[in-house]
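Run log, item B.
One chain of 82 residues. Sequence copied directly from the ordering sheet:
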Amino acid sequence: MMIVERNSRQERRARWSNSAKRVLPRLSVIGAALLAGVPAQAQRAELISRTELRVCADPHNLPFSNQEREGFENKIAEIIGA
C-alpha cells in the first residue's frame, strides 16, 4: 500500500498560485481607488475656510433643525458661530 503525501510542495505552490490569482487583481483595484482619492483631498483642502463654521441642517426636522432656525441644533450652531 502506497501512502501519498497530500501537502506536497507542488500542491502548496499550486494552491498559493491560485489564491494569488484571485486576490491580486482585487488588491490592485482597491489600491487604484485609494490613489485616485489623493488629488481630490488636496483640492478639497483649498475649499475649507478656517474663519467660517459651515453647518448642514435638515429644513424640516424639528426639534433638531428647520429652515426658520428654530431647532436646538440651529441654536447650538449660532452659539458656536458667535
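Observations after the first pass:
- The first helix runs from residue 9 to 47.
- DSSP finds two helices and two strands in the chain.
Flagged for discussion on Thursday.
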